[in-house]
Amino acid sequence: MPREDLVLALGSADSLASAAAELGVAPAALEDAVLGAIADAVDAAEAEGSLTPTTALAVRTLVDVVPPDRLLAAARGGGDACGEVPWMDVATLDEVAAQIGVKTGLRTACALGIAPLEAVAALADPAGLAGLEARSGRGPEEVTQAVRDAIGASVAEAEAAGALTQTEGTVLGAAARVAPVERLLAIVRGDDDPCAPFPWPGSETRGEALAAIVLIGAVDAACALDAATFDVFAALASQAELDQLLTQTGLSQAELEEALRAGLGRALDAAQAADAISGLEALLLRAVLSQVGILDLLRSFSA
Fold first, then answer.
1. Which domain, by its residues, includes 197?
2. SS3 helix, strand, coil % of the chain, rounded to 5?
């Protein structure tokens, strides 16, 4: 059909079904054609370098998890960013991280009153917080808190859906409350530089302090092993995920354990220097570092 007819129908109709009726085609055929065209366009943009792999995955995830009619409204600059979107079962850790990122974007859009696509696109960009401030007209503190709350809610949803283990959910949830938002977004996007300094983020409770220790320890280990931060963190949830990381990187479990124990040791130093834990707690945790297996160790720190 003529391109102009399709564009006019999609631009004026309030749903794909009404656009399909106007065009005289089956709704399912129109949905398949439109979503397929988006997928092709994302593939082409990623191949030519105009979309980063992280942003491309975010767009693909957005298309997968948002119902087509809401996606159509969002593409026109409208739509309800506050409506619930069910968690979609995915197969890989990258897809879990991408879905957390997309849901963070939708929740942020709802809180700041901006278009869903604008929020998701902004958070897929390393300069995303500045973009959100410009789009929403809100101040840095309000934007940062909105994103922090959105990350926490998205992590809790992922844990409830079984996409994150209790250990992962506990640590990431606590980290969302205290760690720098820019750093958390970079970890979820997959473009975090684990060798960049990660200062003690602060904590209000013992649980938050222990979660920050685990987070800093995982970042430190990722730097030592030249691995992605999210991959190292996720590998600490179960033996299966740990084995998967070892296969992907060619590392031995002993190498990973040594790097993580060293990272947790330095994180304990930072926590003690900040008076986040007592000297007795630090002494006991250091004893645990040398006596238990790596997965039991992480469960002990995040319990």
1. 191-303
2. 75, 0, 25
